[in-house]
Amino acid sequence: MSVTLHRRVTMVDVDLVQVNFARFFYWMDAAYAELLVDLGHPLSQVIAEQKATPAVRSRCDYRRPVGLDDEFRIRAAITRVGTSSYTVSFRFEDAEGLFALGAVDYVWVNTLPRQHSAPAPPWIAAACDPGFLEGTERR
């Protein structure tokens, strides 16, 4: 299962040389939150159940620039599930195709009585799409 968000690059997203690298991480976080909503487990519910999903590793591979007023979409999917950790991958695409790939590793955490990792819930594994990144290899 994947989720798609549509965006337009605005002034807040750019610096003198195009899109500031940090914005990609903001967009990945927004797509992750939307993915959880689509899976029926919004972050507000996760937190209310005394769970958390801290990011423990993040990365982004920038393939080509995009600029002010460019329209694009972000696709997000769970692509790997371990015992307590999982990876969400992100495809950034515009009319010309893929321009960036991102990924964030999260750990499923019980917050009470003390924060500690816990097995990822079954709905995380059920949503895993290991084929999501097919065709994104550099040529």
TrEMBL record:
UniProt cross-references to InterPro entries, sorted A to Z: HotDog_dom_sf
Recorded superkingdom = Bacteria
Q: What's the protein here called?
A: Thioesterase family protein
